[in-house]
Amino acid sequence: MIVRIMGEGQVELDQSELPALNELDAALESAIEADDEERFRRALNALLDSVRERGSELPADSLEPSDLVLPPADAHIDEVRAMLGDSGLIPE
Questions:
Q1: Among residues 40, 45, 47, 41, which one has the least CA distance to residue 18?
Q2: Were 7 and a residue from 45, 54, 61, 72 both cysteine, which residue would form a disulfide, CB within 3.0 to 4.6 Å?
Q3: What are 10-50's pLDDT values in tens digits?
Q4: The model scores a pTM over 0.85
Q5: Euclidean distance between the first and final Cα of the chain, in Å?
Q6: Average pLDDT, the chain
Q7: 23 strand-pairing partners
Q8: Which residues lie across from 2 on neighbouring strands?
Q9: Is-contact 71 4, C-beta < 8 A?
C-alpha cells in the first residue's frame, strides 16, 4: 500500500500495518472531536512518525498512485477535520 504524506512524499507500507495505524487514527479523530489542539498535534505526529518508521520511503521521482493521503505535520486542526471521512483518515 502506498501512503502519501502531503509535502513530504510517498511511503510503501505493508497492509499488515493497518490495525496499528487505525489505532493512531482513532486517537487523532478523538482529539479533533474534542477540539483539543495539543492532543491533536501529538496524535498527528504519532501517526506520521509511525508511517515513516514502518514504511519504506519511495524515491522522490516516483509517481505511484496513493492508497492513502495524510496531512502534513504542520496541518491545522480544521484542515485535518475537513479531510476526515466516516472512518477517519485511514479506512478500516
A1: 47
A2: 72
A3: 999 999 999 999 999 999 999 999 999 999 999 999 999 99
A4: yes
A5: 13
A6: 92
A7: none
A8: 12
A9: no
